[in-house]
Design a protein that fits this description.
By secondary structure, the protein is α+β, with helices and mostly antiparallel strands. The protein is built from 20 helices and ten strands. It folds into two domains: 36 residues; 380 residues, Cytochrome P450 (Cytochrome p450, Orthogonal Bundle). One of its GO terms (molecular function) is oxidoreductase activity, acting on paired donors, with incorporation or reduction of molecular oxygen.
C-alpha cells in the first residue's frame, strides 16, 4: 500500500516506473518469441522470430521470393520455415490443400492483414478479406469472365494484336534486333486499357511506355512494404508517414495511380453510351460487365468507388503478369527449338487456311491445343509472376499443417516460386519440360503436380481472370510462332528472374524476327 500511495502522490517516480514496466514487457515479449512461443521450434533465421526486417530487406533488394527459397535450401527436408514473428511459409502440396483448398475460408483460413494494404478506394475482389463479400463479388462478376464473355471481348483482343503484329512486321522487314518484352508490356497496357477502361493508352502507337505502367508497379511495391507492418488497416497510413525518400516516392506514385484510375473511370462512364458497335449494341468489355453486374441474391450493384478499386486491381492483375508470361514463353521456345518446331507443326495443321499467321487465331480452337497450354503452364511453374506466399490467417484455435502446429492468427502460405521447383514434386525441377504435364518421364503424379501449381492461385480465391489471361497470352504466342521465325540475338543467353512487384527477367534481351516464307 505504501508503494501504491507513493506512486499516486509522487509523479516523478511514476514515469521511471512506467518506463521500467515497458522495458520489462519488451524483454518478456522478446524472450517469449525467441524461446517459448509455439513458433520458436520452426526453423529459420533467429531474427525472423522477433522482426520482419529480414523479409523487408529481401523485398528492398528485389529478392523476397528467392530469400524464402533460400531458407528452405538452408534447411533441407523442412516443410515449414519462419519468415517473420507471425509468419510461416510451407513447401509441400499438402500445405496448399490445407491452407488454400476449397472451403478452407470457412475453417478460418481467411486472408491475412497483408491484403488490407491493397484496398484502395474500397475492397476489390482481390483485396477483400470478408468471405461473404468475396462470395458476393464473385457471383456478380463471374459471368464477365466466362467463355461466353471471352467471345465478346475477342474482337478487342484481335484489334490490339493487329497493332502489335504491324510493329513486328516493321522489325522483321528491317531485320533489326529488338526488345520483345518491352513490346509485350506496351501490348498488355493497351489491351487492359481497352478492356478495363474502354480505351487504350496509345502505347503501341507511340512505341513508348505510359506513365500509368510505372505507377502501377510502384503502387504495388508500396503495398507490399505496408503489408509487413503490424498495424493492420493502419499500415498504409503509418508507412506514408515514414520520411524515407524511397518510401515517399512510392507513396506519391500510389496517390497518382489512384487519381489516374479515378479520372479514367469517370471518362469511361461519360463515354459509356457512346461506345456502341455497328449493330447498335453497347460495347462489351470487362468494365461494362462490371457496371452491369448485379448480385442475384442481394441485388447489390457496385458503386463508383468499388468499380475504381476493381479497375486498379484488374490493371495490375492483367497487364504485368500477362506480359512477363509471354516473355518467358518466348524465351524458352527460342531456347528449345525442337519444342518450337513441334508447336509450329501443330498450329499449321490446326489452321491450314492460315499457315503463316496472317490473321488472328480463334481462342475457341487454341484452348484445345495441349502443347500450347503445357508450354504456358511450365513457364508459370518456373516463373510464377507472384513468387512469394499469399498469406492466410490460421483459425483462432490454431491448426496442424503438415504435422506442424501453428497457433491461431498466424499468417501462413505457400510460396509459388519455391514449391514450383520442389524436386520431390517435379523431378529435375530446374529443367523446362512441357511434356511433364502429359505425365512423361519427368513427371511423377499429375494430380500432385497440378495441386502444387500456383501460377493462377488455388481454391476459391484463385484468379478469376484466368480465362482472359489465357486468351490473349495464347493468341499472342500462337500467332507469333506461325508468323515469324523467332531467334535470340545473343546465342547462349541465360535469363534468371529478379523480383520487382512481380518476377521479371533479370536483364533485357533482344530477339530477331523473320517472316515465314522469306528467303532473304
Amino acid at each position: 500500500m505504501a508503494l501504491l500511495d507513493s506512486i499516486a502522490t509522487d509523479k516523478p517516480l511514476l514515469l521511471p516506473l512506467l518506463a521500467l514496466g515497458g522495458l520489462l514487457y519488451a524483454i518478456a515479449t522478446l524472450l517469449y518469441r525467441l524461446f517459448f512461443s509455439p513458433l520458436a521450434k520452426i526453423l529459420g533465421p533467429w531474427l525472423t522470430r522477433i522482426s520482419t526486417l529480414p523479409e523487408a530487406n529481401a523485398l528492398k533488394e528485389n529478392r523476397r521470393a528467392a530469400w524464402v527459397t533460400q531458407l528452405f535450401n538452408e534447411n533441407p527436408g523442412a516443410v515449414a520455415v519462419r519468415t517473420g514473428p507471425n509468419a510461416v511459409s510451407f513447401n509441400t502440396p499438402e500445405a496448399v490443400k490445407a491452407i488454400y483448398g476449397h472451403g478452407k475460408t470457412a475453417d478460418g483460413f481467411g486472408k491475412s492483414g497483408w491484403y488490407d494494404a491493397f484496398s484502395t478506394t474500397g475492397d476489390s475482389l482481390f483485396s477483400t478479406r470478408s468471405t461473404k463479400r468475396h462470395a458476393m463479388k464473385r457471383r456478380m462478376v463471374s459471368h464477365g469472365f466466362s467463355m461466353q464473355s471471352l467471345q465478346t471481348f475477342e474482337p478487342i483482343v484481335d484489334a490490339t494484336l493487329e497493332k502489335f503484329m504491324a510493329k513486328m512486321d516493321e522489325f522483321a522487314e528491317k531485320g533489326e534486333a529488338f526488345d520483345i518484352y518491352f513490346w509485350y508490356e506496351l501490348f498488355t497496357m493497351d489491351l487492359l486499357g481497352e478492356l478495363a477502361l474502354g480505351k487504350g493508352f496509345g502505347a503501341l502507337d507511340g512505341g513508348k511506355p505510359v506513365r500509368y505502367s510505372s505507377l502501377v508497379e510502384q503502387s504495388q511495391r508500396f503495398a507490399n512494404h505496408s503489408g509487413l507492418l503490424p498495424f493492420g488497416k493502419w499500415n498504409v497510413k503509418v508507412l506514408s508517414w515514414v520520411p524515407l525518400p524511397n518510401i515517399q516516392k512510392l507513396y506519391k506514385a500510389r496517390l497518382e495511380y489512384l487519381d489516374y484510375a479515378k479520372s479514367a473511370l469517370e471518362r469511361r462512364f461519360q463515354e459509356n453510351r457512346q461506345q456502341t458497335l455497328e449493330n447498335g449494341k453497347v460495347r462489351q468489355d470487362i468494365m461494362q460487365r462490371f457496371i452491369e453486374a448485379q448480385d442475384p441474391e442481394t441485388g447489390h450493384r457496385m458503386d463508383f468507388d468499388e468499380l475504381r478499386a476493381e479497375t486498379s486491381s484488374l490493371m495490375v492483375a492483367g497487364a504485368s503478369t500477362g506480359s512477363v508470361t509471354m516473355n518467358w514463353m518466348t524465351y524458352y521456345l527460342c531456347k528449345n527449338p525442337t519444342t518450337k518446331s513441334q508447336l509450329l507443326r501443330e498450329l499449321q495443321s490446326t489452321f491450314p487456311s492460315n499457315p503463316s499467321g496472317h490473321h488472328p487465331l480463334p481462342f475457341t480452337t487454341l484452348r484445345h491445343l495441349r502443347l500450347l497450354d503445357h508450354i504456358e503452364t511450365e513457364c508459370l511453374r518456373l516463373h510464377p509472376p507472384i513468387g512469394y506466399a499469399t498469406p492466410r490467417d490460421t483459425p483462432r484455435s490454431g491448426a496442424v499443417i503438415c504435422g506442424v502446429h501453428v497457433p491461431g492468427g498466424v499468417a501462413v502460405g505457400v510460396p509459388a516460386a519455391t514449391l514450383g521447383r520442389n524436386a520431390s514434386v517435379y523431378p529435375n525441377p530446374d529443367v523446362w519440360d512441357p511434356d511433364r504435364w502429359e505425365g512423361g518421364k519427368n513427371a511423377t503424379d499429375l494430380g500432385t503436380m497440378k495441386t502444387s501449381y500456383l501460377g493462377f492461385g488455388h481454391g476459391s480465391r484463385h484468379c478469376i481472370g484466368i480465362n482472359v489471361a489465357k486468351q490473349f497470352i495464347q493468341k499472342m504466342i500462337a500467332q507469333l510462332v506461325l508468323r515469324y521465325e523467332v531467334e535470340l540475338e545473343e546465342e547462349g543467353l541465360m535469363l534468371k528472374a529478379k523480383e520487382f512487384t512481380i518476377q521479371k527477367p533479370d536483364r533485357r534481351y533482344n530477339v530477331v524476327l523473320k517472316r515465314r516464307g522469306d528467303t532473304t
